[in-house]
């Protein structure tokens, strides 16, 4: 009989003992069978490192034990999420385009005359009413409305926006995020 055939016979002969050891570690027959199978595959691939004449069972048990601990460490890092609930909760809209849009808007705001920039920031960013903004600016409500209107038109021209849908999340991103919300 060749060394290769002897090794194969020794592997097959050790299966019942390996399965009993694996069952004692896992507590479940199917997991024990998977662990034994993985052990045998690893042993087969590493047979060149086995020293003939030494205890093959001890060598196989060491491989099995190490594989079990490796699986346990891996399992400790994994999160069970079969329905995808955790994954959906972690989904966020990509922010690259938003950051670029914000930078474009900040540059465009700097290109506005001071009175228009002040009016649109008070109304659009600060959320003030036209009356409150007029009081802050010390002018009539109609003047603030006019400044905001001119500022919006100028920003649209600077940013080359023809339609409100051209700014902000695109249709695909909006659709994906609506499904996860």
TrEMBL record:
Question: Which parts of the chain span the membrane according to its record?
Answer: none
Q: Which UniProt keywords apply?
A: DNA-binding, Sigma factor, Transcription, Transcription regulation
Q: Where is the RNA polymerase sigma-70 region domain?
A: 16-77
Task: Cite the Pfam families for this sequence.
Answer: Sigma70_r2, Sigma70_r4_2
Keyword Transcription regulation appears in the UniProt entry? yes
Which GO terms fall under molecular function for this chain's record? Answer: DNA binding; sigma factor activity
All copies of the RNA polymerase sigma factor 70 region 4 type domain together span 104-155
Tell me which family the UniProt entry assigns to this protein. Belongs to the sigma-70 factor family. ECF subfamily.
InterPro entries per UniProt: RNA_pol_sigma-70-like, RNA_pol_sigma-70_dom, RNA_pol_sigma70_ECF_CS, RNA_pol_sigma70_r2, RNA_pol_sigma70_r4_t2, RNA_pol_sigma_r2, RNA_pol_sigma_r3/r4-like, WH-like_DNA-bd_sf
Protein species of origin: Oceaniradius stylonematis
State what protein this is by name: RNA polymerase sigma factor
The family database entries (Gene3D superfamilies) matched by this protein are listed as:
1.10.1740.10, Winged helix-like DNA-binding domain superfamily/Winged helix DNA-binding domain (1.10.10.10)
């Amino acid at each position: 009989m060749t060394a290769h055939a002897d090794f194969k016979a020794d592997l097959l002969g050790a299966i019942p003992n390996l399965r009993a050891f694996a069952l004692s570690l896992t507590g479940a027959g199917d997991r024990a069978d998977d662990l034994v199978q993985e052990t045998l595959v690893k042993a087969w691939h590493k047979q060149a490192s086995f020293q003939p004449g030494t205890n093959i069972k001890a060598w196989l048990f060491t491989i099995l034990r190490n594989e079990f601990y490796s699986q346990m460490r891996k399992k400790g890092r994994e999160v069970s999420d079969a329905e995808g609930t955790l994954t959906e909760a972690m989904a966020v809209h990509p922010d690259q385009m938003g950051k670029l849009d914000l930078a474009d808007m900040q540059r465009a705001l700097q290109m506005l005359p001071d009175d228009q920039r002040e009016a649109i920031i008070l109304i659009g960013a600060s959320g003030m009413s036209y009356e409150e903004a007029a009081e802050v600016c010390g002018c009539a409500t109609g003047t603030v409305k006019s400044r905001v209107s001119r500022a919006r038109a100028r920003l649209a021209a600077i940013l080359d926006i023809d339609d409100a849908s051209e700014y902000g999340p695109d249709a695909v991103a909006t659709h994906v995020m609506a499904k996860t919300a």
